[in-house]
DNA sequence: TAATATATTTAGACTCATCTAATTTAAAAA
DNA sequence: TTTTTAAATTAGATGAGTCTAAATATATTA
């Protein structure tokens, strides 16, 4: 139906729209796609003709409704396959991204719905990101950054805002896992370092950078 | 590593070598790949330079050892994913080919080995075709055609030589499933029609064409 | 507002995998 | 062995997705 390249552009535009606002710049897209700007211009022209995006010369690009549907489908595929890799094949949450980048392009509505059922209709992927349902509806999770909590407050670790392997590794090493209850014991005024109490009374001290990459609710 | 197209050519050459002998003709390849002959000539030149095939102008092609390894890897992927689709997702054996054609190109040795382990290291796919192991060794199954059996002989249904959806459908409808014990009750001399006794004393009569597409051992 | 810096697009070229039309090579038949 | 037929290759073109270098818009700052 659509080429892998088109799908990857759609996904990238979708994500940039989520984080950086409605209109996406050529250069931003070039950066995340790992290509040079003129390639993006060319691609956007082609995708504009196919009504996947609405593109105005030198004004940036937005997804059309059609493009948005495709993008959400890719996100759904990606996240469900990640669940499969972790839950069924025993991969770590830090190892599944690249494989899911391939699997997300496998076509077939029935396939992904069967996979969804097989996995028990999970609501989130191994990083806590929400999985769109078969109709493309994305469950809104109302999580906040750990760094927004005050001393004494308590919450459940539900997701990460930094998906890098190195950060996920760090969390593994620090023994902080998705679903853990975290209580803010103290916040160091000088450098915004957070001391957390985890299950079993274990205490961990994390930097502000880390507190800024942890989502809780 | 290799493009999907290259992988599909390698698989096609591999299968043609299995059935039609060592050297594969441009036209045969064009036919199974669904492209025109000049496209094949071009592709074989490129693949020859990459040492995936040994190609001699107007003399046909053979796989190199390197090409053969890649081809067997694809076959391994294809068949393991078929097992997954049938055993885990509940697909029918007649529905999985096209999806597996996509999944077979997913890269990652670790992935396919983990999938293999998850499935319990199956020896055959849902059609009874042998699955190469992690080292690329294909278990030799010594099966024969049902049509080679004589009256009174008995054997287990272990595979099909016709993989078409329509044939698989026919077998489903006739209630003949992989693993069934089949006994040749009688063979009609006039038109080589086979009357078979299945488990539970059920009798089924099948044409010579069907007897020629069923493998037993 | 004018000058400068940055972002974007045009122009022209490359690779991969394909096509059609024309030509050449190999095989089969006379 | 010559002729005819079939198979394979060359030649030239196309579309997708990319590139570099040059030109043009847009934004920023003086």
Assign an overall shape of chain A: globular
Strands across the major sheet of chain A, in which order?
A: 3-8-4-5-6-7
- The pLDDT mean of chain A sits at 96
Alpha-carbon Rg of chain A, integer: 19 Å
The CATH topology of the domain at 144-216 in chain A is SH3 type barrels
Structure at a glance:
Two copies of one chain form a homodimer. Among the domains of chain A are: 4-63, Orthogonal Bundle (Arc Repressor Mutant, subunit A); 144-216, SH3 type barrels, CATH 2.30.30.90.
Descriptive overview:
2 copies of one chain form a homodimer. Chain A has 8 helices and 8 strands, in the order αααββαααββαβββαβ. The first copy, chain A, has 217 residues and is α+β, with helices and mostly antiparallel strands. In chain A, the strands form 2 sheets. In chain A, strands 3-8-4-5-6-7 form a 6-stranded antiparallel β-sheet. A two-stranded antiparallel ribbon of chain A has the order 1-2. In chain A, helix 4 packs across helix 5. The longest helix of chain A has 24 residues. The N and C termini of chain A lie far apart (39 Å). At the A-B interface, helix 5 and helix 6 of A face helix 5 and helix 6 of B. The first copy, chain A, binds a DNA duplex (30 and 30 nucleotides) through helix 3.
List keywords for this structure.
homodimer, 217 residues, alpha+beta, Arc Repressor Mutant, subunit A, SH3 type barrels, 6-stranded antiparallel beta sheet, two-stranded antiparallel ribbon, 8 helices, globular, DNA-binding
